[in-house]
Design a protein that fits this description.
mainly alpha, 2 strands, single chain, Growth Hormone, Chain: A
Length: 403
């Protein structure tokens, strides 16, 4: 039941995702005369706001659980995205989208993975993969919902459709059914006790505090990997539809290509669900960086829909693996007891990096007339992320058994 609630929140989370916003880049810049860099700035500022609130939310999550955090995130996001249909000026767009984007980058991330890592230890990989499948479903569905509504009734109808979908799917399950931690019901994480009774290996989990985590090499290498990979994720996602249209691909086909990268993310997530527990996470994280590098190198030369699907497929595989495995790495490396405090601090670096990607991509597009330079920068960042991931060995500390 907890996993189902988290999946609903993960689907609803994608209302202000950069893939969804990418559907609105061309019609909104055309109507209002805004530059791509100015529009991208809303993504960046929203991320910076999340960087400010994430450390505070992380500590609150450890104390009070995920239910309130997720309910407020869903409600606020649905209202903000629906009100974007009334946009008449750049300040109004910034106010609403920055708030929605702050929810996406901070409260949703902490609430979803905080609940999962509190409830699951023995089957944490599988639970994270299922939750990410729900998020990928949102990334597939919501851009298409926005595009079809916009084609029929204009981009303002697209925002209304997004707001309605977020509210309908995300609020009721989390408000009525979600419990933040198993201890609140006198339970333990997943069914590890039954596994132990059947003779399975005991489940061990590290118990780092935030202060202890900050003194480890692994914390800073995971943070470095995050800050290298997330500009690629956000910058590539936001501008891919506009880039494809500029390369001569019609808008509807471009929208399906945007959704196809989410489909391939789903494939990567399914594969991650069956990774052996003994496989060091730094290896698949490094492979994710390789895939994103290849996608960024391929995308500047896209000339046909086939090229677009290929580049988007590589990108989707890399993003799906990264989004599934990186939250898992934080929990496996440092434990779930102080997950919110540790992840909240690291999330500051993540959302700053995520904010930088779209801004960099939009600025280079306005300066050079194409997205080629930004894609080359993203390829370089992806290559560096491979090195950081391979160096991120798990920290050593006494473990506590979760039986």
């Amino acid at each position: 039941m907890v996993l189902a609630c988290v999946c609903c929140a993960g689907f609803a989370r994608q209302g202000p995702a950069v893939a969804t916003l990418s559907i609105f880049v061309e019609p909104m810049t055309r109507e209002f005369g805004w530059s791509r860099a100015v529009l991208s700035g809303a993504v960046s500022i929203g991320g910076l706001l999340a960087a400010v609130v994430a450390p505070l939310l992380g500590a609150a999550l450890d104390r009070h659980g995920a239910r309130l955090v997720l309910c407020l995130a869903v409600l606020g996001t649905s209202i903000a995205t629906a009100l974007l249909s009334l946009t008449q000026s750049l300040p109004m767009f910034y106010l609403l989208f920055c708030f929605a984007r702050m929810n996406w980058a901070g409260p949703f991330d902490l609430g979803i993975y905080g609940a999962l890592n509190a409830w699951f230890v023995a089957r944490r990989v599988f639970a994270n993969a299922v939750a990410n499948l729900a998020q990928m479903a949102g990334l597939i569905a919501l851009p298409l919902i926005a595009q079809f509504a916009a084609v029929e009734h204009g981009w303002r109808a697209g925002w209304l459709a997004i707001g309605a979908a977020v509210l309908a799917i995300g609020l009721a399950p989390n408000a009525l059914l979600l419990v933040g931690r198993p201890e609140e019901l006198g339970l333990e994480p997943d069914r590890s006790r039954g596994a132990a009774a059947r003779g399975a290996a005991p489940i061990e989990e590290p118990t780092f505090t935030r202060q202890e985590a900050l003194r480890t090499r692994a914390f800073w290498l995971l943070t470095l990997y995050t800050m290298l990979i997330y500009p690629v994720q956000a910058g590539f996602s936001l501008h891919q539809a506009a880039h494809l249209i500029e390369r001569g691909i019609d808008p509807v086909t471009a929208a399906t290509i945007v959704s196809s990268f989410s489909l391939m993310s789903t494939v990567a997530t399914l594969v991650c669900a069956f990774l052996p527990r003994a496989l060091p996470l730094r290896f698949p994280l490094a492979f994710s960086g390789v895939l994103l590098t290849l996608a960024a190198l391929w995308m500047p030369g896209v000339a046909t829909p086939r090229d677009g699907y290929l580049a988007a497929g590589l990108f989707g595989l890399g993003i799906g693996a990264m989004l599934t495995l990186l939250p898992l790495a934080w929990a496996n490396y440092f434990g779930s007891r102080s997950y919110g405090a540790i992840r909240g601090l690291a999330l500051t670096g993540q959302v700053v990096a995520q904010a930088a990607g779209p801004l960099l991509s939009g600025a280079l597009r306005d300066a050079t007339g194409s997205y080629a330079w930004s894609l080359h920068v993203f390829a370089a960042l992806g290559g560096l992320s491979v090195i950081a991931a391979l160096a991120a060995y798990p920290p050593r500390k006494s473990l506590v058994q979760r039986s």
